[in-house]
Specification:
Structural class: alpha+beta
Mean pLDDT: 83
Largest sheet: 5 strands, parallel
CATH topology of one domain: Methylamine Dehydrogenase, Chain H
Number of helices: 26
CATH superfamily of one domain: YVTN repeat-like/Quinoprotein amine dehydrogenase
Number of strands: 70
Helix content: 25-40%
Low-confidence stretches: 113-119, 514-519, 528-533, 608-617, 701-705, 998-1005
Shape: globular
CATH architecture of one domain: 7 Propeller
Radius of gyration: 34 Å
């Protein structure tokens, strides 16, 4: 008898399809051709879709097999494919996969291609090349000498992991590694086309907005994006039926229909469908008659799509050998999942060794073998809950990276997500872990901030957490990633233990002595004594608390409350005897952040302010618009009224007459009339004094069909009004109320309509997902498509562009004269439906407003995101520009109309410069000098604020600058081995001083990394890359040159008394010298090269900055003061004392500037740069700090408390002119600062 062969299961379950399973991958056939087209055109393809939409499967089982069939002229291409995920080592993981490619392994070549030259492409070499710079990938591929017709395809699956890596990776350089990883991919594909390098990313669509964190990435994605469309019913049918048919099996039509109806049009059901089919197949294989199809009985036995996955996972869990193994499974899945700060549940790939470390510290005391036994149970053949599957990696090692196979497991398995049965709610493991993490974070924060010991409910719940969860240091590391101190966990536990000991101590004391009058008297006496001693500290603590409250309000986008709270604290500091420099600088930093970052300029309440405005439809504001002269603002709301506001008045004029919500308002081009469109099926024309001029339409409803007016638009000559209706039409009216024409063609209600600037065309948008362009005679000119409903459309002022936006969370820009098949520019960043889109008056920018409560401002020419405005508490229905383009106006469901400064004033900013290496403020505070990579020296007068004066120096780069004490002279150190002395105001250097290369350093120019004047301006010092320090007198006579270090010198500084010189070097040391070149001290302690060295103003201390990410303080006798200053996440490039000596500022490759107290306490991180920060300079009064960056900009940080208070008060006074009820009790503090 021949044994019947059991066919293999054609469904992979939760995991993605593999390339080898292309014969089972159905339903997406036509999409692979589009992917190939985009990849060939752009070399950079991003496959975007919601979780569960099949991104990885489409690339692995669709694109990759199709590439081998690609038809090209000449020889067919041979594709080398590298597939990796960022996980927690994006560059390292890429290097590992590249090293598997034959040409990037050990190779030997002659110049003519024959074997000779050995190229040992070890993993270390590849990774070193990738980490060397942004061209590292190009360099590796160039050295590999790929023969024709070999092409390299790099697939980065689940690219969104890079954003989590950037946020939570414990390594300090994670932010820069993420940026470097992106630069590798961009440089290899978008900056060169000579080498055949192609990149494919897969990414969840809800992470698109995060891409703006990286330079050039949004542009690359916009050009090469493929948004996976939802599968049609027929495509899903094919994905069900065709794999089953491969081995000759069949499926009953009634089961296919059940599955199709269950999936519906929800794309995230596809993995669950695959898993249910996998389980149904297994049931069918075990119990079916010959020729019997897969049927409902097999499907129902699995629990169906609703239960199959959870039941299957439960069966594995319950089949584990013991309770100990089940506890290990709980530890395992809690470690592989997490709930982020936004409340989203995400995967977290983790090394087996880390899970073993955690499991071994729990009550189970699990061994590695036991952990592997549990893992293997969930990744065995046919299980597919964990990656890697056993058929890919048979034996796990300590370094094996584990991951759940798909996010849908978190949404469906009840042990992970929890369940609700009647009134009983059972928390899932994800929720339990999130609560545990939150308890630990709060505990660690309390311990670090040295807050009062916990008591009461906080203590009781935390003690229960410790007892039940048995946390350990390995577990805790995940939740304090930005703190490298291994003692943080122990600090938290010690704090908790002390709190419990204090509780027990207090309990015993109360039992011993009772609550008596004596106890009260003693306590009163102690309180009185302590009150006297602690008064100043308490006052200081209250101020710090107020500042913390201000920061918290600002983080929650309550900018008004944040500003007032910060002003109150700052005024208290100004008016009291508080002299603590740390508190004062904290107040300055907090107020500066708020004053310069505040975006909202004004606010109007459309309706009656109630406690339930956010849920009150009558409080919704649907539309707001400026009059053409900018004098008036009109709004339409859910209370059926139109309101007219003068910007300098607090009370509006209310126009009543509509009986339903007013959806849109529009001023006539001459500004004399106002039109309003309402859900009551009418358009009303008003004079600005409130007189009703005309009513168009038929009030009421016809049967169940509503003819709501959704949007209106005046023609440019003011004689016509176009209106969008809910009956799927656009109607054209004249101002006499005569309906001139009806435009029909949309297949769903019309949401938006807009006239072209010339008045001869209309553009409309509909929930049917189309944008249509019409002539006024009703001729349809073009149709453009969105994947979901369109909510708004707009013409640019020159009529060249049409913008559209809608339910697909995208803004699309179309050439108005382009065809229907054109590929639009897509602007990605919103996380929910976009309700409104408008061009600025100059047509250069686009504003969009969204259900995600944000407004975004975009550059038209390149799609770059310019700014995001936050503050509304509900969906934003409308956004528009003021006539001068300087202000944005928005209307929201939160019952407010808000005005926003279009150009953020968050920093005094000089931008568009070359890569700036050095910056100096003159001692008189008037001039700013900076040297750039392009060899230019620039002077800018801070007082007159005239245009900067640029001097061409004709060198490769200027690395250092320094002013003389009288501000009359300026030094520059260049890469051509020269120092140039300039007289301020002259266009050419006064003299050029040549460095001495020394006898042992060979030929060639040496870069001058540091220059400086002596305090009396009579001597000049310069330090170069050959380890030499050279001294000249002011006349240019060389005084001496001495070998100061064996390696490159980066910093040199005269002491304030002019008798000593300090130097900082790549040899990890700082040295102190006499002017004769005699070494006085060597300062050792840094673990990497030292970039800068500065004296304190009193000449008693030195401060140094190093690539080891620390700042260190030294006494002149060589001893280090206190602990190193830690906090930067990359090399520290510069560190300087403020003029009063109480503050230290530092600049880092982590793109930030940090402020520290003199005794080493961190005060504030100043964020604003987008690339390495190289150099810092204080103004002589200490009220301005200048920073220079590789992002081609200089930021002038305002540290003048009085000026900041003045700016803040001016803003508040301007605001309360129209909102008189806002915090009047708190504004007396600004009474003497009224404009």
């Amino acid at each position: 008898m021949v044994e019947t062969q059991i066919p293999l299961n054609p469904f992979p379950g939760l995991r993605p399809f593999k390339a080898s399973e292309a014969n089972l991958f159905y339903g997406r056939e036509g999409q692979t051709e589009e992917l190939i087209h985009i990849l060939e055109r752009t070399h950079f393809l991003t496959v975007v879709g919601v979780s569960g939409s099949g991104k990885s499967s489409l690339v692995r089982a669709g694109l990759l097999p199709s590439l081998s069939d690609e038809r090209t002229s000449g020889a067919a291409p041979i594709w080398r494919v590298s597939i990796s995920r960022p996980e927690d080592d994006p560059i390292g993981n890429l290097a590992k996969e590249l090293n598997k490619i034959p040409e990037l392994q050990r190779r030997t070549y002659n110049d003519d291609g024959t074997e000779s030259i050995s190229l040992n492409f070890s993993l270390d070499i590849i990774e070193t090349l990738l980490r060397r710079g942004s061209r590292g990938l190009i360099e590796a591929v160039w050295q590999a000498r790929l023969p024709n017709p070999v092409k390299l395809l790099i697939v980065i699956d689940q690219f969104e992991e890079l954003f989590r890596f950037k946020q939570v990776r414990p390594r300090q350089d994670a932010i820069n590694e993420a940026a470097a990883f992106v630069k590798l991919l961009i440089q290899a594909t978008k900056k060169q086309q000579e080498l055949p390098i192609y990149v494919v990313l897969t990414m969840r669509s809800d992470f698109l907005g995060e891409c703006a964190q990286f330079r050039d990435l949004p542009e690359a994605i916009n050009e090469g994006q493929y948004l996976i469309p939802r599968m049609t019913r027929d495509q899903i049918r094919s994905a069900i039926e065709q794999p089953i048919a491969v081995d000759g099996a069949t499926i009953a039509p009634q089961l296919v229909n059940r599955l199709l109806n269950t999936v519906g049009d929800n794309p995230d059901q596809l993995p669950i469908l695959q898993h249910a089919l996998m389980q149904t197949w297994n049931v069918w294989v075990a119990d079916h008659q010959p020729n019997e199809p897969l049927d409902l009985k097999h499907y129902d036995a699995t629990g169906g799509m609703e239960q199959a996955l959870s039941r299957h996972a439960d069966s594995i869990y319950e089949g584990l050998p013991s309770d100990r193994h089940q506890k290990i499974a709980e530890v395992l899945f809690k470690r592989l999942t997490e709930r982020d700060a936004e409340g989203y549940e995400t995967r977290r790939p983790t090394a087996l060794s880390e899970i073993c470390d955690i499991a071994s510290a729990t009550e189970t005391r699990a061994t590695e073998a036991e952990v592997i036994e549990v893992v293997d149970a969930f990744r065995a053949e046919g299980q597919s809950f964990l990656m890697p599957p056993v058929d890919e990696v048979e034996t796990l090692t300590a370094n094996s990276k584990l991951d759940i196979s798909h996010e849908s497991l978190m949404r469906v398995w009840e042990k992970l997500k929890g369940k609700v049965e009647g009134d009983k709610v059972t928390k899932g493991w994800i929720a339990e872990e999130a609560e545990s993490a939150e308890t630990y974070r709060r505990l660690a924060q309390a311990a670090v901030c040295q807050r009062e010991l916990w008591r009461g409910i906080d203590l009781a719940s935390a003690w229960e957490w410790k007892t039940k969860e048995q946390p350990n240091q390995v577990w805790a590391r995940r939740y304090n990633p930005k703190n490298t101190s291994p003692s943080l966990f122990q600090q938290a536990i010690d704090f908790l233990n002390k709190s419990e000991q204090k509780r027990l101590h207090d309990l015993n004391r109360e039992r011993r002595i009772g609550i008596t009058l004596i106890t009260l008297s003693i306590a009163t006496a102690i309180t009185a004594i302590m009150a006297s001693i602690q008064y100043v500290n308490a006052q200081n603590s209250r101020l710090i608390s107020n500042l913390s409250n201000a920061e918290a309000s600002f983080a929650l986008n309550d900018q008004l409350a944040a500003l007032v709270t910060a002003l109150e604290a700052s005024e208290q500091i100004q008016q009291t005897s508080i002299t603590n420099p740390v508190t004062r600088l904290s107040a300055i930093a907090t107020l500066r952040q708020i004053v310069y970052s505040i975006q909202e300029r004004d606010r109007f309440i459309h309706g009656v302010q109630t406690g339930d405005n956010l849920n009150n439809k009558g409080g919704r504001v649907y539309s707001a618009s400026y009059s053409p002269d900018g004098r008036w603002i009109a709004s339409g709301g859910g209370d059926s009224t139109v309101k007219l506001w003068l910007p300098n008045e607090s009370q509006p004029h209310t126009l009543e007459g509509h009986t339903e919500a007013v959806h849109d308002v529009a001023f006539s081009p001459d500004g004399q009339l106002l039109a309003s469109g309402s859900a009551d099926d009418t358009i009303k024309i008003w004079q600005l004094d409130g007189t009703l001029v005309q009513t168009m339409g038929n009030p009421g409803r016809v049967g169940d069909l509503t003819f709501d007016v959704e949007d209106i638009s005046f023609s440019p000559d003011g004689t016509l009004i176009a209106a969008a209706y809910k009956d799927d039409t656009i109607k054209l009216w004249d101002l006499n109320g005569t309906q001139i024409k009806t435009f029909a063609g949309h297949q769903g209600y019309v949401t938006a309509v807009n006239f072209s600037p010339t008045g001869d065309r209309l553009v409309s948008g509909s929930v049917d997902g189309t944008v249509k362009l019409w002539n006024l005679d009703g001729t349809l000119l073009q149709t453009w498509n969105h994947s979901e409903g369109v909510q708004d459309v707009a013409f640019s002022s020159d009529g060249q562009w049409v913008a559209s936006a809608g339910d697909d969370n995208e803004v699309k820009l179309w050439r108005a004269d382009g065809g229907s098949s054109q590929i639009p520019q897509v602007l990605l960043g919103h996380n929910d439906t976009i309700y409104s889109v408008r061009f600025s008056p100059d047509g250069q920018t686009v504003a969009s407003a969204s259900k995600d409560n944000t407004i975004k401002l975009w550059e038209v020419k390149d799609g770059r995101l310019l700014n995001t405005f936050q503050g509304h508490r509900q969906s934003i229905l409308s956004v528009d520009f003021s006539p001068d383009g300087e202000t944005l106006i928005s209307a929201s469901f939160d019952n407010t109309i808000r005005l926003w400064n279009r150009a953020p004033t968050n920093l005094e900013h000089l931008s568009g410069l070359a890569d700036i290496r050095s910056i100096s403020i003159s001692p008189n505070g008037q001039l700013l000098a900076y040297g750039s990579d392009d060899g230019t020296l620039t002077l800018w007068n801070r007082v007159t604020r005239t245009a900067p004066k640029v001097l061409a120096v004709n060198t490769e780069a200027i690395l250092s600058t320094a002013f003389s004490s009288d501000s009359q002279y300026l030094l520059t150190g260049d890469t051509d081995s020269t120092v140039k002395l300039w007289r301020v105001g002259e266009d050419q250097p006064l003299r050029t001083l040549e460095m001495d290369d020394g006898d042992d350093w060979g030929q060639g120019a040496r870069a001058v990394n540091a220059v400086g004047f002596s305090p009396n301006d009579q001597q000049i010092a310069a330090a170069s890359s050959n380890g030499m320090i050279t001294l000249w007198n002011i006349n240019g006579t060389r005084l001496r040159t001495f070998q100061a270090h064996d390696k490159e010198i980066y910093g040199v500084s005269f002491s304030p008394n002019g008798t000593q010189i300090a130097s900082a070097s790549a040899d990890n040391t700082v040295k102190l010298w006499t002017l004769e070149g005699r070494r006085l001290q060597t300062f050792s302690g840094h673990q990497d090269q030292v970039y800068s060295i500065r004296f304190s103003p009193d000449a008693q201390e030195l401060v140094s900055a190093s690539a080891d990410r620390t700042i260190r303080r030294w006494r002149l006798d060589g001893t280090e003061i206190g602990q190193p200053l830690r906090g930067h996440e990359d090399a520290v490039r510069d560190a300087i004392f403020a003029p009063d000596g109480n503050t230290i500022a530092s600049a880092s490759y982590d793109n930030t500037v940090r402020l520290w107290s003199k005794d080493g306490n961190p005060i504030r991180t100043l964020e604003g740069h987008h690339d390495f920060v190289y150099s810092l300079s204080f103004s002589p009064d200490g009220k301005t700090l200048a920073s220079a960056s590789a992002d081609d900009s200089i930021i002038l940080w305002n540290l003048d408390l009085d000026n900041l208070i003045q700016r803040g008060c001016q803003w508040v006074f301007a605001y309360i002119q129209k909102n008189p009820g806002f915090r009047e009790d708190s504004l007396s503090l600004c009474s003497d600062r009224q404009p």
